[in-house]
From TrEMBL:
Protein name: Calcineurin-like phosphoesterase domain-containing protein
PANTHER family: SHEWANELLA-LIKE PROTEIN PHOSPHATASE 2 (PTHR47680:SF2)
Organism classification: Eukaryota, Viridiplantae, Streptophyta, Embryophyta, Tracheophyta
Protein source organism: Flemingia macrophylla
All copies of domain Calcineurin-like phosphoesterase, residue ranges: 60-244
């Protein structure tokens, strides 16, 4: 009887604040995974991918970051874009990061979160940080982890542990729908992978496959081809047939694929 009363009293409370509770849990998980960044969850519907933008007062391009958070920050410091406290100080500068954040390092997720933080700070200052997908982002969405490191696999294992804890917290509230488990449909193990890496590899697949939580949040909004003023940015080159096909169409189709809407 006491349990029934507790459920009855908690349910109306949860029904009034499901979005607030869910947002709190997501922020808690993000803080734990990102290395201590407080970030509000991103909008449910991200803005359209920009393909052509006007010439900014100052344009800075940054290349492959490959999971090295310290070197990424050093590059941003050298460009005068962040201060000693890692806050954006680039003013109206437009920064293009041309992809390849993933692989070869152990701070892939931390860099993705850090860039998201800087994007928001830059927007408030009249600047912009534009991120793109490189071949390593595409490889990871495809499930090709040949360049992933042990530290990178471990980072994704830890991410899933926090994601799972967040789902358990949400499931305690009757006013919220049952959280989706990104591991759904994945095999329990992968042939040829050592036992100590199985959980991390499953987490990496779950996070980065089409419509995965990480690919959808951080990679799906990225451009594949970007024109800023009279500069064209693309990772790996652009052929005449690509321009004939249509740059906007390329961006749209890659976005749909990462979003799980197209083969």
């Amino acid at each position: 009887m006491a349990m029934e009363k507790e459920e009855e009293s908690s349910t109306p409370f949860c029904k009034h604040i499901p979005n607030l509770l869910s947002s709190f849990v997501d922020t808690f998980v993000d803080f734990s995974v990102s290395g201590g960044l407080f970030l509000l969850p991103p909008p449910l519907s991200p803005p359209p991918i920009p393909t052509r933008l006007p010439q900014p007062p100052l344009l800075v391009a940054i290349g492959d970051l490959h999971g090295d958070l310290q070197k990424s920050k050093e590059a941003l410091h050298l460009a005068g874009l962040i201060d000693a406290a890692d806050r954006y100080v680039g003013g109206s500068t437009t920064v293009v990061q041309v992809g390849d954040v993933l692989d070869r390092g152990g701070d892939e997720l931390k860099i993705l979160y850090f860039l998201e933080k800087l994007k928001r700070e830059a927007a408030r200052s009249g600047g912009a940080i534009l991120t793109m997908n490189g071949n390593h982002e595409i490889m990871n969405v495809e499930g090709n982890f040949i360049c992933a490191t042990e530290q990178g696999v471990e980072e994704f294992r830890v991410w899933y542990e926090w994601f799972r804890i967040g789902n358990e917290m949400k499931s305690l509230c009757n006013g919220l729908e049952k959280p989706w488990d990104p591991m759904e449909g994945l095999p329990s193990s992968f042939r040829g992978v050592r036992k100590e890496f199985q959980d991390g590899l499953r987490a990496r697949v779950a996070a980065l496959r089409p419509n995965g939580p990480i690919s959808k949040r951080f990679l799906m909004p990225n451009a594949t081809v970007l024109v800023v003023g009279d500069s064209v940015f693309v990772h790996g080159g652009l052929l005449p047939e690509h321009t004939s096909y249509g740059l906007e169409k390329i961006n749209s189709e890659v976005q749909d694929w990462i979003n799980g809407c197209a083969g």
